[in-house]
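Action item from last week, closing it out:
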Amino acid sequence: MFDDLQKKLSDVFDGLRGRGALSESDVDAALAEVRRALVDADVSLPVVKDFIAKVRVSLNPDRALARSKLRQVLTFYNIADHYKDMLIASGFEPEVMRIQDAFKAGGFKAAAQHMTDEYMDKLPVIPGTSIKEIKERLEPFREAGVTRLVVPYVPVTEPVIDDARRFVEAWGNS
């Protein structure tokens, strides 16, 4: 049963791989396939109804700067064993291995250079220039059936506590 579920879930992620930035319809279709696979595996309906998504966000008027901070976080995830394994299982083996090889050859900065914008756009991260933009880019997750959205903030400027405080205040005031 679990092997069949794992295969079906792998097929869902394989189908998303290589599409570039995911559209709302891509997310909708993938979540529908995940639900179907869970129901086929006799997972209880209340469990199937609760979908949690984690989308890391960074906020700065300069999108390139916001993206650069997310790039650092994602580079770490591609190097750390547990996260690396999850990314490989999600269909990103070539990207992860390229970053791993660069890390082994030249360290973290070399690895970060291999974290391409194209790869980042396939992952659940949003380098936003405004709270409005971030909320708009989170909406497809809700529309696709995500019932709990976790939005960790990645600070861009120093001191990071002040940056995080500005983000929380802006989020609450929007």
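Closing note: The beta strands are 52-54, 56-59, 125-128, 148-150.
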